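Support case: 2-acetamido-2-deoxy-beta-D-glucopyranose complex. Customer-provided input:
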Amino acid sequence: MPARTWKLAVASALLHSSLGLARYNDVCSRIATSLSASSALHSPGNDSFTKLSSHWTSSSDESPACVAEPRTTDDVAKILKIVAKTRTPFAVQGAGHATNRGFSSTEGVHISTQGFTSVEYNDTKKTVTFGAGLTWDKVYEALEPHGVNVAGGRAPGVGVGGLILGGGYSWHTNQYGLTIDTVEAFELVKPNGEAVEVTHESDPELFFALKGGGNNFGVVTKFTMKTFPQGKIWGGMITYGHPDTFAAVTAATAKFSAEVTDPKASLLSTVTFYQGMPLINIQLFYDGPEPPAGIFDDFLKTESAASTVATQTFSSMINNVPAGALHGVRGAFLGFAAPAYSLDFLNAVNEQAFTNGAEFTNSSLVFLTLVSEPFLQDILSHNKHDTAYPFNRAEMYTPFNIFIAWADPSKDEWYKQEIEKIRDVLQAKLIEEGYEGVTTAPVYSNYALWDAPAERLYGSNLPKLQEIKRKVDPEDVMGLAGGFKITPKAMIRDEL
Ligand SMILES: Cc1cc2nc3c(=O)[nH]c(=O)nc-3n(C[C@H](O)[C@H](O)[C@H](O)COP(=O)(O)OP(=O)(O)OC[C@H]3O[C@@H](n4cnc5c(N)ncnc54)[C@H](O)[C@@H]3O)c2cc1C
Ligand SMILES: *[C@@H]1O[C@H](CO)[C@@H](O)[C@H](O)[C@H]1NC(C)=O
Ligand SMILES: *[C@@H]1O[C@H](CO)[C@@H](O)[C@H](O)[C@H]1NC(C)=O
Ligand SMILES: *[C@@H]1O[C@H](CO)[C@@H](O)[C@H](O)[C@H]1NC(C)=O
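Agent response - structure generated as follows:
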């Protein structure tokens, strides 16, 4: 472009960004003066500001103008009304495990739910009501003295908010279904600031929409879930490091997937290339002090490099899972729908992890992990009510996940293309096996890359979700926050 036009463009961009900053600062001051004494607003530099806006992968971090830490639904309502009125971009963050930048981060007003930390167990109803700011490990620990549990995340540090609002796969999914299938109520601050308890009885449409609809319908401050009895469990992680053992481990995973029908048994296979080396980690779980003979024998008899498998409390198993924050690296999840795990498919998974891992090493790879989650065929039959995710329960697909971390930001786009290639190869393998549905099946939003189309996430539920959206959020307030959006095109007001 000509120099003069270019100078004008730069000047206008500078003006715009400084005006923008000034505007957000003004919004932040308005929020600060409106909040009750129990809540807080943090400015850049404050320890809480940093803590409440940081993510598991630091590539999901942005620098907000301020961080609001509301502790009452009233204060959440005040913040929402102010950002709505001023059309200020904002974010809602729980424990920050989103791997997509902008999904729980913003340069505007960052709302943290971490002030909501209550846990109340109702022994009569066998339900638990807990705050949206908690991580699953804290909920498990609080329930342990009561001898009960809930169906939540499988690693320490994962937030309750994002996992539930996306769907949720847990160690108990084979027994009780998806996490959302066990949710009985949401305490929700609607986009217009109204605080309501949403149940199937009070508002069946909104109840449906919150079960997979992410942050499109407001800010959830509490969840109520069904509990079930929980005693000692058997489980942990076995690490296989010697390539000579991979064939036996892979065959054991295929056999488990094809033959084991005991819903108390579950496993998660992670095939990894890390620090120049291939390795396979298998996490095993049995909901009882000992698994019946036969279920996991093939894994146990194969020589391993390390094992944390033991009879232990559920929370001790969870807290032992190595899932530390990945600070200073880039990260991405790219999930797809996998209906079954044949030996052929699992061999292709190994091949993809190990050959691509070796090839990516000179491109600042930190690790490449391909995660297989062989759930039982009937996990989608435990729901009492319809849910936003998955949009089709007639066929079961497990959430397969490609999980990658790298160091060099200039490689972001290249890695996106590379993991899409891995997905395409593995999907083609499933199609070859006769599963044509994999390219149209529901994709799990919590493992999806930022550009997953709404049709793949919400499919045939999209029209209904958009109808609910029109009613609950006519001003598209939640469109000011990032994440997967279901807003009908005609309603979109802002270009963020
Ligand atoms: C180490 C690790 C282990 C994982 N294990 C599992 C697993 O076992 N099973 C599984 O299903 N998934 C798992 N996941 C994926 C997980 O479900 C998502 O990362 C999820 O988004 C995490 O929720 P969060 O609250 O920590 O994330 P955040 O980044 O805080 O939020 C994610 C999204 O949810 C929205 N959100 C969060 N809280 C609220 C709220 N209260 N109201 C409205 N919107 C809200 C945010 O705006 C954002 O769009 C795992 C992820 C990681 C990194
Ligand atoms: C951070 O903010 C809190 C409350 O807003 C305040 O009490 C504290 O002194 C601040 N700390 C720093 C280091 O600024
Ligand atoms: C538990 O639920 C019962 C039945 O709805 C209710 O009567 C009781 O007040 C609840 N208890 C607590 C501690 O909330
Ligand atoms: C990395 O290594 C692969 C194969 O070893 C090679 O094809 C590729 O060109 C290398 N890339 C870079 C950036 O050096």
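The domain at 13-112 is CATH 3.30.43.10 (Uridine Diphospho-n-acetylenolpyruvylglucosamine Reductase; domain 2).

Case will auto-close in a few days if no follow-up is received.
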